[in-house]
Predict the structure.
Amino acid sequence: MSNLSNTSYKQRLIELALRRGATRANICSPRDLVIEDALAAYCSLPGCPHYGLGAGCPPHVEGPDLLRHWRDEAEALLVLRIDVPSFIFQSEQKDEVMKLLQEIVAEVEIDAIAGTYGRSRGFAGGSCKHLFCRQHARCLRLDGGLCRNPLAARPSMSGFGVDVARLMEAVGWDSRNLLSPGEPDDMSGWFAGMVLLRR
């Protein structure tokens, strides 16, 4: 595929993300993806309540070392996010927004795989077990079965050690995320996802 048509295809993926509900989407170099082992360790220490419960979270994901390998193979990185008012972070709507985020990332990844980038990998904020399968006692994949939501659920960026704030800065977006209770309701925050575009 020529550089021109390749650029056009990347733009199509950006437009797909925006059409599906992302507030922002952009392409950057995979070298802009900073990966820190210490960030992945936060999933277990001091302890995420979703740790170990689903196939998309540690200790069941491949982790920072393999993500570095995938990053080095990638041609581009599509970054997307959904901007929300700060009150969403303390409301039941938070899970719905994060579920939408996972679905957008999955759709972009699937489109990329079907097109030019056959080994693309998508990642999103949040625990797939909590967002999609909280009504089930166990994640089927952890019992050797198939994922109940293969067209929607994607692994957590946290478990791979992604420095999300630096990624936001790399694509020219404000990296501040107002997660603290008590922030004014007119302040905003965001949820982010990404798709490594690999041939």
Notes: The two ends are 11 Å apart (CA to CA). The mean pLDDT is 91. The helical segments are 3-20, 37-41, 43-47, 64-73, 93-114, 128-133, 164-170.
